[in-house]
Amino acid sequence: MEKIKNIFCIEGFGPDSNCYLFDDILIDTGTGIKKDYLYQKIKEANYNVDDISMIVNTHCHFDHVGGNYLFPNAKVLIHENDAESIRSGDLSSTAGFIFGESIKRNDVDIELKEGDKVSNFEVLHTPGHTSGGISLWDGEILISGDTVFSNGGFGRIDIGGNSNEMSESIDRLSKLDVKYLLPGHGPWVNNGKRHIELARQMFQGY
């Protein structure tokens, strides 16, 4: 398992999102369908499941929040605009209909806002894929959720997204001096700024 600075990078299994583990915090939890895989990766990072006290969801889609139930003792944090989707379990706004699954944990403990802090990361509200999408930024590392991926990729906007918001979010991220890009799916990369600029260019032609 690769480690960037103090962050353990857990590659998503199948449709699962990537998960990122540091301190006592887990960023996203995948679908929760392959729980043994995620538990094993956490163990490989020398963590126990009970060590995790905080889950930060980058947005409300099932492939990022479905595994929240695997950590019953952890508080769930998500942007205020996406919190109701988790609480309601709505199959449309959580994209559960794509997977034929509904989320098994519907509580939100803390609703995040722009500028909040998660450890040494700042919460950036980066809507477009969902209205409550966030990225986490520490001045060097960007955990981007499904806003931007490596190699010029970006999150789809046809499942509750907004193209104008996505364009503004990608533009905003392209101005950051990102060294490491840790996206919601696909490989994490260094020289993140170049990858985000490529996403910006590709989205303009989308």
Percent strand equals 15-25%
Please tally the β strands and state the result: 13
- Rg is 15 Å
N-to-C CA distance:
34 Å
> Helix coverage percent of residues?
25-40%
Mass-distribution shape: globular
Strand arrangement, largest sheet?
1-2-3-4-5-6-7
Poorly predicted tracts of residues: none
Secondary-structure class: alpha/beta
Our count of helices gives: 6
Overall pLDDT:
96
Reading the helices and strands in chain order gives EEEEHEHEHHEEEEEHEEH
- How would a textbook summarize the main sheet? 7 strands, mixed
Q: Which secondary structure elements does this structure contain, and how are they paired or packed?
A:
Elements: E1 3-4, E2 7-10, E3 19-22, E4 25-27, H1 35-44, E5 54-56, H2 62-65, E6 75-79, H3 80-88, H4 96-99, E7 110-112, E8 117-118, E9 121-125, E10 134-137, E11 141-145, H5 163-174, E12 180-183, E13 189-190, H6 192-204
Parallel strand pairs: 4-5, 5-6, 6-7, 11-12
Antiparallel strand pairs: 1-2, 2-3, 3-4, 8-9, 9-10, 10-11, 12-13
Features of this protein?
25% helix, 22% strand
What's the short story on this structure?
This protein is α/β, with parallel strands linked by helices. The protein contains 6 helices and 13 strands. It has helices spanning 35-44, 62-65, 80-88, 96-99, 163-174, 192-204, and strands at residues 3-4, 7-10, 19-22, 25-27, 54-56, 75-79, 110-112, 117-118, 121-125, 134-137, 141-145, 180-183, 189-190.
